[in-house]
Specification:
single chain; 4 helices; 8 strands
Length: 152
């Protein structure tokens, strides 16, 4: 079970729907439920193994910060939001994906919102100069959350 420290306030259905309208895409239901109750936050360090396409080997991804949808309260006002992180990533983040978390090295974890791979979780290695910078981590947000292990 993922333990979240310092989560943001719970989000209303209207707040999430407003975000989806600005984005022009619907969030996957499992992620939508997560963000409604955990509007960002710092987690204990959790890890997951994934195949890095650029290095062509298994690597460990350590997730440590979850990006909030909204940063309106004292808990999240200093944090990077999903929309700001997406804008900061500029051309590195495909239009069909949004950043949802940061690794311990502050590189983004993305969720896909297009029909072909909707809900798939990816890791974006911002130090890699080509399309191999994005590696598949999980085929759903639920699978991703359930596969995270405490980093010891």
């Amino acid at each position: 079970m993922l333990k979240m420290r310092d989560p943001g306030r719970h989000l209303s259905e209207n707040e999430i729907a407003s975000f989806e309208a600005r984005l022009g895409r619907l969030l996957p239901m499992d992620y939508r439920q997560f963000i409604a109750t955990n509007n960002g936050g710092i987690s204990d360090d959790y890890r997951i193994m994934y195949f890095n396409r650029f290095y062509e080997q298994m690597q460990t991804l350590i997730v440590f910060e979850w990006l909030p949808l909204l940063a309106e309260d004292s808990h999240t006002s200093e944090r990077l939001t999903i929309e700001v992180a997406r804008k900061n990533l500029d051309r590195l983040c495909p239009e069909s994906m949004i950043p949802i978390a940061l690794s311990i090295s502050t590189e983004p974890v993305l969720i896909a919102l297009n029909n072909d791979n909707r809900g798939f979780i990816y890791f974006l290695d911002t130090g890699v100069p080509d399309q191999r910078s994005i590696s598949l981590v999980s085929k759903s947000f639920s699978e991703f959350i359930n596969s995270l292990q405490p980093y010891a």
